[in-house]
């Protein structure tokens, strides 16, 4: 588990996430993303290149300064199924993943 996370999703399709552990160690995740905003919640696909390659799929919704976000890694295959807009938040599933446990909420910091 991380102490805090700083996420930067740019309009050019690049993302950088810095996750800080309780001991102060940072891990940077970076890559590209695409979204489909035709559904509510919207869907998102992330292609991570740093620190390792992975592809994640999920859903997100922005309400004011609050971001609700739920994604799982689908490549490599660890046995997880991503949430879908039709099933909503809490619908990701897989090994040792309880319903709703993977839903994350973030607040914008200016």
How would you describe this structure to a colleague?
The two termini are 24 Å apart. The chain has strands at 4-9, 14-20, 26-36, 42-50, 54-63, 66-75, 104-107. The protein is globular. A seven-stranded antiparallel sheet has the order 1-2-3-4-5-6-7, with no helix packed on it. By secondary structure, it is mostly beta strands. Helix content is 0%, strand content 52%.
Name a few traits of the molecule.
52% strand, single chain, mainly beta, seven-stranded antiparallel β-sheet, 110 residues
- Summarize the main sheet: 7 strands, antiparallel
Strands, count: 7
Strand order of the largest sheet: 1-2-3-4-5-6-7
**What's the rounded overall pLDDT mean?**
94
Helix content: under 10%
- Indicate the radius of gyration in whole angstroms: 14 Å
| Cα separation of the termini | 24 Å
- Which descriptor suits the 3D outline? globular
- Give, in order, the helices and strands: EEEEEEE
Uncertain spans, ≥5 residues at pLDDT below 50? none
Q: Approximately what portion of the residues adopt beta-strand conformation?
A: over 45%
Q: Decide which structural class fits the backbone.
A: mainly beta
Helix segment count? Answer: 0
Sequence-ordered SSE layout with sheet pairings:
Layout: E1 4-9, E2 14-20, E3 26-36, E4 42-50, E5 54-63, E6 66-75, E7 104-107
Antiparallel strand pairs: 1-2, 2-3, 3-4, 4-5, 5-6, 6-7
């Amino acid at each position: 588990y991380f102490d805090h996370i700083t996420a930067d999703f740019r309009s050019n399709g690049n993302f950088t996430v810095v996750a800080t552990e309780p001991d102060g160690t940072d891990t940077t995740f970076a890559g590209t993303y695409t979204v489909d905003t035709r559904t509510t919640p919207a869907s998102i696909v992330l292609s991570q290149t740093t620190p390792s390659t992975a592809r994640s799929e999920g859903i997100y919704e922005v309400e004011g300064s609050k971001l609700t976000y739920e994604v799982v890694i689908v490549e490599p295959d660890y046995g997880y199924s991503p949430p879908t807009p039709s099933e909503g938040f809490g619908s990701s599933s897989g090994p040792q993943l309880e319903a709703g446990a993977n839903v994350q909420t973030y607040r914008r910091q200016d």
